[in-house]
Amino acid sequence: MKVILKFASAAVLFTVAVSAQSNKRAAAIREYGELINSMIVAADGLTAALAKAQSAASAARAIDGFSNRMATFQSQLVELDRKNPELEGDEPPAELVGHIGRLEASMSTLAQTLAQAGEKFGADTQFQAAAARLAQTLGADEEGEEEYED
Fold first, then answer.
1. How far, in Å, CA of 25 to CA of 46, rounded?
2. Residue of 4, 37, 56, 73 with fewest CB within 10 Å of its CB?
3. CA atoms within 13 A on the CB side of 139
4. In Å, how far are 37, 114, 133 from 80, measured between CA atoms?
5. Residue pLDDT, tens place only, 82-99
6. What is the pLDDT of residue 55?
7. Residue 33 has pLDDT above 50, yes or no
8. Kind plus residue range of the DSSP H or E element containing 67
9. How many CB atoms lie within 10 A of CB 81?
10. Total Cβ atoms within 10 A of residue 94
11. CA 64 → CA 68, 93, 120, 127, distances in Å?
């Protein structure tokens, strides 16, 4: 009888542990999804602000605001990665693929809008400084290519 009780207790503890891991994973994925959605909102906001910018100063202010938000997002992402090492890997969790696709589309649109703003305001030093800060915040080198750590 004692063996059966020990086995039953172990099974219950295992079930609780698996459930806790599953809940932790779901909560982590929810946090990543919320962060990615916030990044999309910020990128779309900058796209809209640049599209209607009438001056280099207003475009630069919008870019600087976005740079600040992206720096905050990067800090939050580092913290999420630190808290959830089990989600690290070459491929994102399946639950985040749609979020990431929307972020990539949003950032692609933003890149096009930034290029157009550069054509319009690129001679302005305030705009140049804001664009350089954004490139640095996003991790681009002088060639305009993203830097990745291996």
1. 32
2. 4
3. 7
4. 15, 29, 24
5. 998 888 877 888 999 999
6. 97
7. yes
8. helix 56-83
9. 13
10. 8
11. 6, 32, 17, 9
Could you tell me the two tokens for 3? 């063996």
Answer yes or no: is pLDDT of 11 > 80: no
Residues counted in the chain: 150
Domain residue ranges of the chain, discontinuous segments joined by +: 23-138
| pTM recorded for the entire structure | 0.78
7-25 burial, b at 16+ Cβ within 10 Å, e below that, comes to eeeeeeeeeeeeeeeeeee
Separation CA 46–CA 49 (nearest Å): 5
Q: Do 118 and 131 meet the contact criterion of CB atoms below 8 Å apart?
A: yes
d(CA 48, CA 113): 9
- Dihedral angle computed from the Cα positions of residues 43, 48, 49 and 51, in that order, rounded to the nearest 10 degrees: 120
Predicted confidence (pLDDT) per residue in 102-135, tens digit:
999 999 999 999 999 999 999 999 999 999 999 9
Structure tokens at 5: 């009780």
